[in-house]
Amino acid sequence: MSFSPIQKYRPFPSIDLPNRQWPARVLTQAPIWCSVDLRDGNQALAVPMNVSQKLEMFEALVKCGFKEIEVGFPSASNTEFSFNRRLIEDGRIPDDVTIQCLVQAREDLIEKTVQSLMGARSVIIHLYNSTSPAQRRYVFGMEKADIVKVAVRGAQWIKDRIKRLEDSGTKVMLQYSPESFSATEVEFAKEVSEAVMDVWQPTPERKMILNLPDTVEVAGPNVYADQIEWMCRNIKNRESLIISLHTHNDRGTGTAATEMGMLAGADRVEGTLFGNGERTGNLDVVQVAMNLYMHGIDPKLDFSDLNALREVYERCTGMTVPPRHPYSGELVFTAFSGSHQDAIKKGLAAYEGHQGAWDVPYLTIDPQDIGREYREVIRVNSQSGKGGVAYLLESEFGIELPKELQREFGPIANDAVDALGREVSAAELKAMFWKEYIERNQPYELKHFHADGTTGVFRCRASLYENGREIQVTGEGNGPIAAFVQAMVSHGVPTFEVANYREQSLGSGSEASALSFIQVKRADGKMCWGAGVDTNIELASIKAVLSAVNRTT
Ligand SMILES: CC(=O)SCCNC(=O)CCNC(=O)[C@H](O)C(C)(C)COP(=O)(O)OP(=O)(O)OC[C@H]1O[C@@H](n2cnc3c(N)ncnc32)[C@H](O)[C@@H]1OP(=O)(O)O
Ligand SMILES: CC(C)C(=O)C(=O)O
């Protein structure tokens, strides 16, 4: 075969940028954020949001702290137009929030856009036309010079109408996007952008936004960063511009492209919640904001209740957030695997003890900071280890298994979970523990126990069921437990001694009971744990001895 599919494709040329600066830079502050959920996110939905869904989403975005929100493409439909009117006429736009609207370089559409914005306090009018070779060739059928004319005409039509808005008290900022910037030759992107600047005449006091979109990811994020740095270095009147990023995720690197673009000199970032948007989506703003947060940089957006935000998003857009989605997915703070659970459990315990800088293995941030719960962090299936089992019993029921007992019960639980072939709940693990230890009453079950003594010598008398038949045993020792051990050995149980003892309370007040753990050692060296629960602490220990005896018999 002389032609294979791979020959259909070609590499993307690199940018000639000697001495590029961005790789050595470090992010130290949040960008100006602009949400495009209600426009780019919305235009990508099979069923675009209706006015009430857009209103709900708008309010959620305001609550997150967005100060610039692209609310739509008002010349696209009645819904989009009416939404602007509702926002403005009902006074729903907070004083510190600016709404932004997108429009093509077409006069009728620009006119309609301006009409939709009348009466607003502060707006950004966002003009775009595509500039890449493929768009020039196929969409417009134009050479570069005519593409520049499309942009300049559009800029002029907007300029002609701004006065109307400003005269009625609206503050207007202008934004231009050479759409498909990342697939455009940088020299031409500069030429067309500067032609628009010539019309709008931005100054350092009255800047315009130059948005440089990665409309379709055609190269790696480093190439995008080079393009942004190239523009920042070469465009005229840089000080009169707010350089803005707008990335998509076709190669799965929208977040990386944005972060590298910020390093390359951008001031502003457009994106959506959870990355909704055309094809593979827009930049997920939550990811970049939380990435800043995890480095101790205030992201200036509030995602402290990400679950509630996710609910609004899912209800309004009909989209879902995948379980592995960074920060917001259901499983992103969850460990099923044993070694991860072990490390997280130890890390959380150390953090809770000292509350210093966050340093918990496998968890980039404290899940509680975004409204997640520690109970989601460790979940148990057949890949889990003793640490996970112990964590769930402790966090859900306050049962603190001694370390040695964890080693014994871990494999028992693992076998049971493996046989079930699914995840198990903390309640199921507790039931397994109860079955294995607490309810272990064959051959011996305690009916009655009494011990008393003075000067270090205790005598005990106990009634037991041995395989259902009642028996009496008596013994002597330096405490009630030792006396009971001696009683059992006298009765004929192979010689054993108590090797380990721990007890704790379970619950509180009138519901409180004692939970005892006892490890016995037989004459042949075999070790075995038992556990017992009773409202009487002495009886809990005696039951724990019997549990261990029953488990070795
Ligand atoms: C990358 C982005 O996300 S850009 C934003 C895209 N968003 C949307 O398109 C959503 C809203 N859009 C719409 O509702 C409609 O497309 C409208 C109202 C804007 C325009 O609708 P229509 O005029 O019916 O048709 P359509 O969208 O197909 O227009 C294509 C025409 O506009 C031209 N065109 C496309 N973009 C632009 C632009 N930015 N500036 C000027 N002309 C443009 C095309 O060359 C084409 O011209 P032709 O008819 O001479 O071939
Ligand atoms: C209009 C522009 C900014 C856009 O949405 C894109 O390029 O993806």
TrEMBL record:
Annotated residues for binding of Mg(2+)? 40, 246, 248, 282
Q: Which cofactor does the UniProt annotation name?
A: Mg(2+)
Q: Under which main EC class is this enzyme filed?
A: transferase
What InterPro entries does this protein map onto?
A: 2-isopropylmalate_synth_dimer, AIPM/Hcit_synth_CS, Aldolase_TIM, IPM_Synthase, LeuA-like_post-cat, LeuA_allosteric_dom_sf, LeuA_N_DRE-TIM, PYR_CT
Q: What is its EC number?
A: 2.3.3.13
Which example biological process does GO assign this protein? L-leucine biosynthetic process
Q: GO terms for molecular function, please?
A: 2-isopropylmalate synthase activity; acetyl-CoA C-acetyltransferase activity; magnesium ion binding
- Where primarily located? cytoplasm
Q: Where in the cell is it found?
A: Cytoplasm
Query: Does the entry feature the keyword Metal-binding, yes or no?
Result: yes
What pathway annotation does it carry? Amino-acid biosynthesis; L-leucine biosynthesis; L-leucine from 3-methyl-2-oxobutanoate: step 1/4
* Alphabetical UniProt keywords: Amino-acid biosynthesis, Branched-chain amino acid biosynthesis, Cytoplasm, Leucine biosynthesis, Magnesium, Metal-binding, Transferase
TM spans (from-to): none
- Which part of the chain is the Pyruvate carboxyltransferase domain? 31-307
What is any one of the record's Gene Ontology cellular component terms?
Answer: cytoplasm
What function is annotated for this protein?
Catalyzes the condensation of the acetyl group of acetyl-CoA with 3-methyl-2-oxobutanoate (2-ketoisovalerate) to form 3-carboxy-3-hydroxy-4-methylpentanoate (2-isopropylmalate).
Give the record's family classification.
Answer: Belongs to the alpha-IPM synthase/homocitrate synthase family. LeuA type 2 subfamily.
Its assembly, as annotated, is: Homodimer.
The record ties this protein, via NCBIfam families, to: leuA_yeast (TIGR00970), PRK03739.1 (NF002991)
Q: Which HAMAP family match?
A: LeuA_type2
Q: What is this protein called?
A: 2-isopropylmalate synthase
Q: What organism does this protein naturally occur in?
A: Roseimicrobium gellanilyticum
